[in-house]
């Protein structure tokens, strides 16, 4: 990949272009920093760090130097301090190709957009850059992610008692003041976030093989009682509000399971994202489970958790 790389930059940002995106490059760093950024050190030279960001769709910026590499996704950063060589921290931010540079950075509106409305604008006031996003989450506590339906918000709640899917949905609706429904998963960033939050919320629960997070999805009637044509994998499920892509459903062998639960009272119509506890092979994978129960029949997989989603407004 051929890239034009400017190394002699001081006060003013410069542009670095490649086939897929243009980066605005200057001395600076997000301030305050976001806990949702990821430390990718050691990545080698800072250019490698920039390449990591260019190679990741949701990545908005990379900052650091030849020894530190931190990348941050869209919607995680609000302010960026402009500094100088004395702090030895560079920042590269994705912007639309047509933005011009160098120039009067205070009058140029730097923007980045995708066809789905996951976009931002950068403005400079002489010492600091402000990032503005077109939408925000309906309530505090949700984190926004880019989706093909536009910005989408996710929050994880822990229920006090073990929870069925029906109670999990009620919790989601109540806690989101009616704005939310169970969330599905459309990226590894969303899965990582749901699992990280779950881990924080249930730190002290260790008595199961896995803890389950209720997510959206209901088995299609035509896939019960037998797995018909068109019922493979995630295709066997419907009801995914706020979602049009399904590339991150990783079912372990044997799932989805089209049998009835135990002696035959209910089908396993609902979906759960699993988090490792005493076992880890299914960590981050999705299984189907009976909506009406908080635990599987062997009581080795139980749910305390709900992933709630809402469109940004
Ligand atoms: C590299 O950047 C990081 C993050 O800003 C900073 O903490 C660190 O001191 C810098 N390293 C060097 C060698 O300057
Ligand atoms: C670089 O930044 C430091 C700290 O903000 C400041 O004290 C210094 O004057 C700046 N140097 C130049 C050349 O602008
Ligand atoms: C620029 O914006 C930053 C962050 O909002 C603020 O702290 C700073 O005072 C502003 N500076 C000027 C010159 O307006
Ligand atoms: C874990 O902690 C929560 C809140 O601190 C508490 O309600 C719950 O009973 C604890 N669970 C276990 C298994 O200790």
TrEMBL record:
This is PAN-3 domain-containing protein. Residues 1-19 form the signal peptide. Keywords: Signal. It holds the Pfam family PAN_3. Residues 1-133 form the PAN-3 domain.
């Amino acid at each position: 990949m051929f890239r034009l790389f400017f190394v002699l930059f001081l006060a003013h940002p410069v542009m670095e272009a490649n086939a897929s995106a243009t980066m605005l490059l200057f001395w600076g760093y997000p301030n305050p920093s976001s806990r949702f950024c990821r430390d990718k050190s050691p990545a080698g030279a800072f250019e490698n760090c920039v390449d990591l960001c260019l190679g990741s769709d949701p990545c908005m910026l990379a900052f650091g130097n030849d020894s530190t590499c931190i990348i941050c996704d869209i919607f995680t950063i609000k302010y960026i301090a402009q500094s100088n060589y004395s702090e030895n921290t560079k920042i590269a931010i994705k912007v639309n190709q047509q933005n011009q540079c160098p120039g009067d950075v205070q009058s140029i509106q730097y923007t980045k957009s995708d066809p789905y409305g996951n976009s931002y604008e950068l403005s400079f006031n002489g010492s600091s850059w402000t990032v503005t996003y077109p939408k925000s989450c309906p309530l505090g506590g949700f984190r926004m992610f880019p989706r093909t339906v536009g910005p989408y918000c996710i929050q994880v709640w822990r229920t006090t008692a073990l929870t069925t899917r029906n109670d999990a949905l009620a919790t989601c609706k109540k806690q989101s003041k009616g704005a939310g429904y169970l969330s599905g998963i459309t990226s590894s960033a969303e899965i990582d976030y749901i699992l990280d939050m779950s881990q924080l919320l249930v730190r002290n629960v260790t008595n199961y093989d896995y803890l389950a997070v209720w997510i959206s999805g209901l088995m299609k009637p035509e896939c019960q009682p037998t797995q018909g044509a068109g019922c493979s994998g995630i295709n066997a499920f419907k009801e995914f509000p706020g979602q049009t892509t399904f590339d991150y459903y990783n079912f372990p062998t044997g799932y989805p399971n089209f049998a009835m639960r135990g002696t035959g009272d209910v089908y396993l119509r609902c979906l759960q994202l699993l988090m490792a506890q005493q076992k880890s092979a299914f960590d981050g994978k999705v299984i189907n489970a009976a909506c009406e129960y908080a635990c599987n029949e062997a009581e080795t997989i139980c749910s305390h958790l709900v992933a709630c989603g809402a469109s940004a407004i």
